[in-house]
């Protein structure tokens, strides 16, 4: 097939690479405009653009798809299909209908659950035991199109959203290639999404970071896993913000939410259900990420200290 690819972040790169390695032809790539990155605000190309340039594929970065320019470019290439993976822009009806097979999207959830911006993070934040990738035919709604192929995978109790992100990007790439082959052979029957179980994965913001120690130990652990690597779960210690990067569920018990119950090799904190989490890695404000042992060597934390105050 002749393909136009639309994508922006790291998640989309394995899909693009798989298409480049396949018998399909990637005619052009659409990606979000370059953005300032880091403390020095260096203008940086998105990962999909960098991948396309490496393979000498033309790249287009329109700030808007609302005018006719993007559509004219697409019509000029006469693609068989447009593949969309975490592009970050709404496609018009004209663009959706501009290719023989329309627009096909790789979405990192088991639709209709977690339509929207952050399905991976919310599947971890909510403590789901399973997630997956849905390859769907795009329509004018937000992730409402007919499903073409679904791949499921379990979520480990200690898996972070960052780790799941990496796994699903590979699963999604393999599913995409399979889907295109089935599509060419006429072996796919589109399935409408269920009207039950619909949910939306709102954008992740810094406001989600603070840990509410009155939550259950499992909820706290899920927050730490789900907010990796940005914006990270956090708590207050001596009035200063500390990012919590890694926890495990502890077999220890406590009495008061936020109370430190062990300060030996790891920092163990009681949660609202009386159960505890072991903090394995954390990061004081302005310092590098470190394990609990290193943190405790430089910070005296007495038993019964209350975090979050």
SSE map:
Elements: E1 2-7, H1 13-21, E2 25-30, E3 35-37, E4 42-44, H2 47-54, E5 59-60, H3 69-77, E6 81-85, H4 93-96, E7 103-107, E8 115-116, H5 119-125, E9 130-137, E10 147-154, H6 161-184, E11 200-201, H7 217-226, E12 233-237, E13 240-253, E14 260-262, E15 267-270, E16 275-284, E17 290-291, H8 292-298
Parallel strand pairs: 1-2, 1-6, 2-5, 6-7, 8-11
Antiparallel strand pairs: 3-4, 7-9, 9-10, 12-13, 13-16, 14-15, 15-16, 16-17
Helix pairs in contact: 1-6, 5-6, 5-7
What this model shows, in words?
The protein is of the alpha/beta class and 309 residues long. The chain has helices at 13-21, 47-54, 69-77, 93-96, 119-125, 161-184, 217-226, 292-298; strands at residues 2-7, 25-30, 35-37, 42-44, 59-60, 81-85, 103-107, 115-116, 130-137, 147-154, 200-201, 233-237, 240-253, 260-262, 267-270, 275-284, 290-291. Helix content is 25%, strand content 28%. It has 8 helices and 17 strands. The N and C termini lie far apart (59 Å). Helix 4 links the parallel strand 6 and strand 7. The strands form 4 sheets. Strands 5-2-1-6-7-9-10 form a 7-stranded mixed beta sheet. Strands 12, 13, 14, 15, 16 and 17 form a 6-stranded antiparallel beta sheet that branches. The protein has a two-stranded antiparallel ribbon with strand order 3-4. The protein is elongated, with a radius of gyration of 22 Å.
